[in-house]
Every structure is written in structure tokens, then in C-alpha cells.
């Protein structure tokens, strides 16, 4: 009978004998399976297994004729599988847009995963070049991938989607760590703890090799305990304001400009449900009605006739015609009524635009292929000035976040101190009933954990509802439902540590830990 230790040694020996194609295929498959750690599944053990396998395969790359190149290839294959399986749903946006854009569906299925995987590939190559066989190599691995994910979140406008910390369900105990170190700090801890079992393999005394995963288990237990205490000990109060969130479950292909009158009728019918007179405002999602509704007085008048004195907060495209070319914005507008006449009392213009969806950083190149952007209202939008707080009569001041903006933790830091709550409007109908809308909602809830602010969310064909200041969804809709949801707005809680200090404390602590761990090697080289 083969003992577990013998089976382990045989398995590691087989990994070392794999040729280039076999190792690449195995890592690609492992990366794809690891995507199950993210929403809506949150199966974290597959991420642990994938990270450990990647470390083993990178360790084996050092025995190859060109170790750094082998590490680059192996890291790229793992990450390509991970990103293809976790963001494949972006292709649905091209298909929903129809011809000729549907012919570009291969871009998010090939070029996007390939590009995102480069960050992990470079980190993997650096790991092969710098690491040693000892158990502390997992710390270097976590540090390099943390740096890679930071760069992925910032280069070329950034895409911090499905970063490691997001394997944890927002609003549950471990996610509360983000209140202290943010989602980036939680990502660093996630990489460090979930890759720790790899320390059991390699050189070094057995007690030392067991020390690293044992410390990781203790750390995870501590994070869970901290989160559980925070969830149970924090009192959540109401403000007294009431909001009506209205959303439709229409697919993007059903949201034609010609159908805008019928779509408006659906929104108005749901908005006028019994109890409207008790609402402080009605909220519609991003791009609720196709077209430039603010420039259509008849449609605006119909809204006023239905809502009466109740303000409407809606997402809409708008245009400024004072200059050439005209400036188009993806906006959140507040309409209220003075003596029965409509008034545009506040506007926020989206500042972080979706690459290729609302803007195009390589427009001159893609226009040769007949592609500008996926926008249905203009070839491209103009970015707004940045995050800002809006006020509506009868409501505490709020910070609007339109769709993609909610995925950036640093975007709201400058304005959050003046806000009492967050409002996220989105159009998730581009992504169908795949995992994308669930991932978007999980990411959004981390902004509440980091800021201590409740969030109201209205998303077309997405999860809408109320999120408390701890990231827990309290009143939620399904993806495809069309409904009006009445909520009582919650009050903010005391500002978390992260809201006032940002990423600097944990980054400094992480760097100090790396220096302490590698101090003997540094001294040896200097000597």
C-alpha cells in the first residue's frame, strides 16, 4: 500500500517530467478551475490548490535550461486560464451590441485574458529568478503577485476585477478585514495564507516548513474572529429617509432607442406603485431609458406627471453642444419639480470610463477595423471631473458611483468624508446571466466595508437593493426581475481605519516583514 508521503513524492516527480505543452495545459486548466473561487461560487479551496500548484511548477522551472523564460510561460498559462474563465462574460457585451461589433467577440476571449495574464507572468518570472527552496519563498511569491495585481489595477486605466481578496464574500467575517487594510491589503493576506501550504514542499527543516501554513491557519482564524466580532458588535441605525429603487430585467438587445417610450412606461408604472408619496426619492439605474432623455421635454413631462413632487435620480446620457465636437457624458441626474415644472437640480458625470465600452485609448488603430466603442449613444464619452458629493432635498448627501467606478477603492477616497451614503447605478444587462453581474455586486459591497457607508444600488439586469455599512445585502433583487423595491436608508457607522489611513500602513508593514525575512541573505551579500 502506497503511503501519502510516497504518493506525494511520486506526484511531484511526475510534475517535474512534464514537457512544455503538458505543463502549460495543466496550468491553464488549474487557472480556469481556480476561477470558481470568485463570485458567484466562492470555492476558496480551488484557489489555494491552484496557487500551490503554480508555486510547485515555478520551483520546477528553475531546473530548465532557461528557467526565467519557463517561469514566464508557466505563470502566463495559469493566469490566462484564470482570466478567461472568470471574465469570459465580457464577450457577451459585443454580442449584445449586434453587428458589426459581434464579430469582435474574440477580443475579450483571447486578447483580454492574454493581456491580463502578462502581469502574473512577469511576477512568476521574477519569482523563479529571486526565490530559493526554503519555506519563506511563499512570502516572496505573495509579495510579487501583490505587486502584479496592484499594477493590473492601475496601468492603462486599470482593471481591479477578481483580485485575490475578492474570493471572500463581502459582508461575511473575513471580508471585514478590508475595513482595516482595504481590498488590496486583504488580497496580499489572501495570497500569503492560501499559498502557504506550498511551504511544506522544498528544503528546510520539517518544523520550519510546517510553521508557515500553521501561521496562516492562525491568521485566518484571527481574521474570521475579528470579522465575526465586528459584525455582531456594530449597531446599524436608520436615517428616516425612504427610497424606491426601480429596475428592469431587460436584456441589452431589448433596449433599443425605438423602444424608449415603452421602456419609460414600464419604469413609470413601477415607480408609481402604492406608497410613492412616502418616498424621499425614486432611483433608476444607469442608462435607464435609451437616448438623451434630458433633451426630450415630452418624456420629462410624463415623468413629472407620474412622480409629482418626488425627486427622481436616474442614469442617462447627456450632451453639451456649446463646443465642437459635442461632448457626451454618461451621467447621473437629479430631477425635481418646482410648481409642477421639471428642474435639473444636480448632475454627476462619470469620470472612470470603461475602456472600449465608453472610451477607446487606441481609437486610431481600432477604427481601421471599423470599431470605435460599444456605446449606443455616441462613439465615445467624455470623462467627468472626478468623484463628487451630491445633495437632494430630504436626503443626506451621497456619493454617486456609476457602474465601473465602484470597482476602484481609491477613486472615492477624496470625497467620501463628506458623504453619508453611496449610490451605485449600473447597467449590467450587457453581461447577460453569467457570473459578471454577481462579481460586480460582490466587488461593490467592499466599498461599503472600506468606507463605513451604506450603499444603495440600482442595476439594470443586475443585483439591486440595499447594502449596509458592513457590506451585507439586506434587501436585494434578482438579476432578471423587474420591480420596485422600497428601502429605508441606513446611517453610516464610525469611519473604519482604512477610510482615514488608506493603504500606506499595511504596505509599510508588508515591506518591513519582507526585509526582516530576507535580512540574512541581504547581510550575506553585503558581507
UniProtKB/TrEMBL annotation:
Pathway: Protein modification; lipoprotein biosynthesis (N-acyl transfer). It is found in: Cell membrane. One of its GO terms (biological process) is lipoprotein biosynthetic process. It is an enzyme of class 2 (transferase). One of its GO terms (cellular component) is plasma membrane. Its EC number is 2.3.1.269. Signal peptide: none annotated. Keywords: Acyltransferase, Cell membrane, Lipoprotein, Membrane, Transferase, Transmembrane, Transmembrane helix. The chain crosses the membrane at residues 45-61, 73-91, 103-126, 138-157, 177-198, 210-229, 506-524. It is a multi-pass membrane protein. One of its GO terms (molecular function) is N-acyltransferase activity. Residues 246-495 form the CN hydrolase domain. InterPro entries: Apolipo_AcylTrfase, C-N_Hydrolase, C-N_Hydrolase_sf, LNT_N. Catalyzes the phospholipid dependent N-acylation of the N-terminal cysteine of apolipoprotein, the last step in lipoprotein maturation. This is Apolipoprotein N-acyltransferase.
